[in-house]
Design goal:
Blueprint lengths: L1 E12 L2 E12 L3 E5 L6 H9 L6 E6 L2 E2 L5 H6 L2 E4 L11 H6 L5 H4 L3 H7 L1 H5 L10 H13 L5 E5 L7 H16 L3 E6 L2 H4 L5 E6 L2 E6 L1 H6 L1 H8 L2
Parallel strand pairs: 3-8, 3-9, 6-7, 7-8
Antiparallel strand pairs: 1-2, 1-4, 4-5, 9-10
Length: about 230
């Protein structure tokens, strides 16, 4: 069953035509991968979905409702969580304050401080620290935890491995795997195809604002031509 649908979306930045008639569907309980090199429009698409830069044409449909032109805070209220590229934690707030500021609708999915701390024990150890004093990996955990505190029906993760050491990425990926096991629907936007293919149920490859290849992860893993041309591997 479709949870999130992007229907023939066209997105501009000023006069720059960035997303050119792109469509995709995220089903309930699915992890959908969106892969592509830097600069192909992945984050622009994320911004259009969550309401930061609405599409000029086309629709974004979430849980059956058209959310194409609503404000980003209304998108969050509707049940969509975002883990933004670059983490964007509230630097001067403590770890716990970052989490509490996002808290809402506990009854919906049961995400609370206790549950986030169970998923990321390091955050509990650092709960009194200012977010700006955390390592990059800890900030990424905090960004994920903050999104979960909104108790989302759908989680969009934009480049969650960016700038992290391999040992840190392993911990983050294990956490995302646990979210998958719990049935959370996730749109995973990644440049690192090797990592993404370990988790996703289906994958799209993006280039120049359009989808150029769509397949199951094992099919992409075996397609050397597509990986070389569009992913640089």
């Amino acid at each position: 069953m479709a949870l999130l649908e992007v229907r023939d979306v066209h997105v501009y930045y000023g006069d720059a035509y960035v997303i050119q008639g792109l469509s995709l569907t995220l089903d309930q309980g699915q992890i959908l991968g969106l892969l592509g090199r830097n600069g192909v429009g992945k984050t622009t698409l994320v911004n259009a979905i969550v309401g930061f830069n609405p599409p000029r044409r086309g629709k974004v449909v979430f849980k059956g409702a058209d959310i194409s032109q609503i404000a980003s805070f209304e998108t969050v209220r509707s049940g969509m969580g975002l883990v933004p590229q670059g983490r964007r934690v509230f630097a001067s707030l403590s770890v716990e304050e970052n989490l509490l500021v996002a808290e809402r609708s506990f009854e919906r999915h049961g995400w609370s401080l206790k549950r986030v701390y169970t998923l990321f024990p390091r955050l509990q150890e650092r709960r009194g620290q200012q977010a700006k004093t955390l390592s990059g990996g800890e900030q990424q955990m905090l960004a994920i935890g903050r999104a979960l505190m909104t108790n989302p029906d759908c989680l969009i993760m934009d480049e969650p491995s960016e700038g992290l050491a391999p040992i840190v990425i392993q911990g983050v990926w294990e956490a995302i795997g646990k979210l998958k096991d719990e049935g959370l629907s996730i749109l995973l936007v990644e440049q690192n195809a090797f990592l993404a293919l370990k988790l996703v149920d289906f994958v799209h490859v993006m280039s120049k604002g359009q989808l150029v290849y769509s397949a199951r992860p094992e099919e992409l893993a075996a397609n050397e031509a597509i990986k070389a041309r569009f992913l640089g591997i």
